[in-house]
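Researcher: Let's run the pair from yesterday's discussion. Sequence first, then tokens, for each.
Model: Starting with the first of the pair.
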Amino acid sequence: MDKQSLFVQVANMEERIGELYVELGTLKQKIQELIEENQRLEQETERLRAAAKDLPLAQGSEGLDNLNRIYQEGFHICNVKYGSLRTEGECLFCLSFLHK
């Protein structure tokens, strides 16, 4: 292998290393952004959990009454189609849920 070819090979390797260094810097920045976002989300989750502890719990019968009202208004309350409009009459899934 002659000196010129060896020099070209080293120069190409140096260029690839430079490109990898730039790519590594970009990845490092993205990781930093993700860590910061994760930290913000964890803080928000804690804040929401603390706020949720202060909310009054609805009575079970009150929740069932609300679901029954929603069903009577023509919406699904079953886990299959929850919230969508009932267009084909009664839904056996919803009815079985109401009668539990």
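Model: Moving on to the second of the pair.
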Amino acid sequence: MERVKLDFPAEAVIHRHPMTVRVTDMNYGRHLGHDALVSLLHEARIQAFAALDLPEWDMHGYPSVVADLAVQYQSEARWPDGLTIATAVPEPQGKSLTIYQRIYQLDSQQVVATARINQLLIDLASGRPVDVPEQVKQALSRARCG
């Protein structure tokens, strides 16, 4: 079986967000369900961009949409595990933001999962993707340096 393998760009981390596995995040296998994992990733991504004053619904005049998502599951998490989700965004190229996220167990730092999301900024008038605005690139660059 071919598995997704993602390389997490640690040098591009812009934010770390603490979270806790909720009992409602558990699946019938008694561990963090894949649907809940995507929800946790979304929350951490929103928090990361909000910390840079870049809400996903208005990134300098453009809302964003997720074009695709890949997840590499690496270990299990269970209620009430504490987690940290690191969000990394390498230098944007063209029309997409490539966002990497890595979920760690808070205590052991064991990797639970790594994800890659390609996000596009959309011109509402045309419905088409636009180049990533320079202001967004600058905000991401400042976050990576600090």
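Researcher: Give me one sentence on the second I can quote.
Model: The chain has one domain: 10-145.
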